[in-house]
Amino acid sequence: MTMAAIIGGIGTTHVPSIGKAIAEKKHNDPYWKPFFKGFDYVHYWLARTKPDVAVVFYNDHGLNFFLDKLPTFAVGAANEYCSADEGWGIPVARPIPGDAALSWHLINALVADEFDVTTCQGMLIDHAITIPMTLIWPGPSWPVRIVPIEINTVQHPLPTLARCLKLGRSIGRAIESYGQNLRVVVIGTGGLSHQLDGTRAGFINKEFDKLCLDTIVGEPEALTRYSIHDWVQLSGSQGVEFLNWTAMRGAMTGRVSELSRNYHIPISNTAAATVVYENRRERAREAA
Ligand code: DHB
Ligand code: FE
Description:
- The structure is a single chain.
- With about 290 residues, this protein is of the alpha/beta class.
- It has helices at about 15-25, 35, 40-50, 100-110, 125-135, 160-175, 205-220, 230-235, 240-250, 285; strands at about 5-10, 55-60, 75, 80, 95, 120, 145-150, 185-190, 255-265, 270-280.
- The protein has an eight-stranded mixed beta sheet with strand order 6-3-7-2-8-1-10-9, sandwiched between helices.
- The relative contact order is 0.23.
- The model has no long low-confidence stretch (mean pLDDT about 95).
- The structure holds 3,4-dihydroxybenzoic acid (DHB) and fe (iii) ion (FE).
- The site of 3,4-dihydroxybenzoic acid (DHB) has 12 residues, from loops.
């Protein structure tokens, strides 16, 4: 039977200044090298696994949605996604191809699963997609199509970690029920700990980040005991971008293992992390 397969997941930070470092080719500068070297394994793994599609969990920062109208979950359903100048002084990325047919399959499955998502046939994508995409696929053209899935991490009330894990699981089941022979990688962007505003601006929590990275692979449910309020306290007001990682982990339906991890402090105000997870189908399913 022809079915789409989830080959694995990638988690990465989406700090805008990375775009400037790429444009200025600062990959080997002492400040940047420890961060960029985390992508050597990502490139090696992708050259071997060659996914066709990336489902990207991310959060918009005011480019496509603003505080006046802000969905909790939104799914792109376009065949192309453009970016725009957000004011960070970085080059605007070239348009990224979409896969509207897969998007609608995922949207149908989510709504059937009682996730009442906003559907976006036109959607501007911001640095939370363009920076990770450029880091992951640095070549002159995009070798994958994307389905962007946006999670509100900006205006409270935010969805819980448990809700985002369930969203990811729904997406994982939906991908595996898609009757096309596609290899799918799931991506979560943002984090880890950081806070850009208020008296704690610059806050980073190395111990908590380590706990998150150690726990998300084998026991993602264990992280759902933290409330959003706990998360802001432990990881900073923007550390809640870990919701995107939580959904990415939820979408991996099989046996998950960590293939690589790079953690580096700081990139701009952020504890930067880059991981690759493998998703191995359970034997029983393989045989079925
Ligand atoms: C930074 C981090 C972010 O997640 C973001 O969206 C913008 C800026 C930073 O550390 O500068
Ligand atoms: Fe961010």
